[in-house]
């Protein structure tokens, strides 16, 4: 993001702190609600990804100066976007484990973590490419969450493990 001197390092530190706190709280809340209302993993994932996508779009519009810049809007969009995005990995693992059953949850989880680490490494190594500007990572975050949101629609929700237990 290129907001220049309009945001101080101290404000960024506070933003990061509150993003971490809300991410933890939202992750626990989402996991709890999915446990209480079983059989709705796909809906929960789609809702969280939609919120995250909308918030990252908001950040893009603020960053590209399409919308007038207000710190409060940026803070809300960043905190909600990242928190909603970070609430999804446990739900993705749960849904994948349900669909892949009787394959071990450890194998499914290991495979998903491997893929996540691979994509993360590619993302971070791309910072070394000289032709990348400061905007690309925000576009990448928006595109990643938006594509995931669309692909979740096509997942056939099956609760193979829950049926047996």
Automatic annotation (TrEMBL):
<keyword id="KW-1133">Transmembrane helix</keyword>
<dbReference type="GO" id="GO:0016020">
    <property type="term" value="C:membrane"/>
</dbReference>
<feature type="transmembrane region" description="Helical">
    <location>
        <begin position="74"/>
        <end position="96"/>
    </location>
</feature>
<feature type="transmembrane region" description="Helical">
    <location>
        <begin position="108"/>
        <end position="130"/>
    </location>
</feature>
<keyword id="KW-0472">Membrane</keyword>
<feature type="transmembrane region" description="Helical">
    <location>
        <begin position="43"/>
        <end position="62"/>
    </location>
</feature>
<feature type="transmembrane region" description="Helical">
    <location>
        <begin position="15"/>
        <end position="34"/>
    </location>
</feature>
<dbReference type="InterPro" id="IPR049680">
    <property type="entry name" value="FLVCR1-2_SLC49-like"/>
</dbReference>
<feature type="transmembrane region" description="Helical">
    <location>
        <begin position="136"/>
        <end position="155"/>
    </location>
</feature>
<keyword id="KW-0812">Transmembrane</keyword>
<protein>
    <submittedName>
        <fullName>Disrupted in renal carcinoma protein 2-like protein</fullName>
    </submittedName>
</protein>
């Amino acid at each position: 993001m290129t907001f220049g001197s309009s945001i101080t390092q101290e404000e960024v530190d506070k933003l990061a702190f509150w993003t971490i706190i809300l991410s933890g709280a939202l992750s626990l809340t989402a996991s709890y609600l999915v446990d209480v209302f079983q059989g709705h993993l796909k809906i929960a994932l789609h809702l969280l990804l939609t919120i995250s996508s909308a918030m990252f779009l908001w950040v893009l519009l603020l960053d590209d100066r399409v919308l007038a810049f207000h710190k409060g809007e940026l803070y809300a969009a960043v905190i909600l976007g990242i928190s909603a995005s970070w609430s999804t990995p446990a739900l993705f693992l749960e849904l994948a484990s349900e669909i892949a059953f009787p394959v071990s949850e450890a194998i499914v989880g290991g495979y998903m973590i491997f893929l996540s680490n691979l994509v993360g490494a590619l993302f971070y190594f791309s910072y070394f490419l000289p032709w990348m500007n400061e905007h690309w990572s925000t576009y990448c975050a928006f595109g990643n969450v938006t594509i995931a949101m669309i692909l979740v629609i096509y997942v056939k929700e099956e609760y193979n493990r829950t049926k047996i237990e």
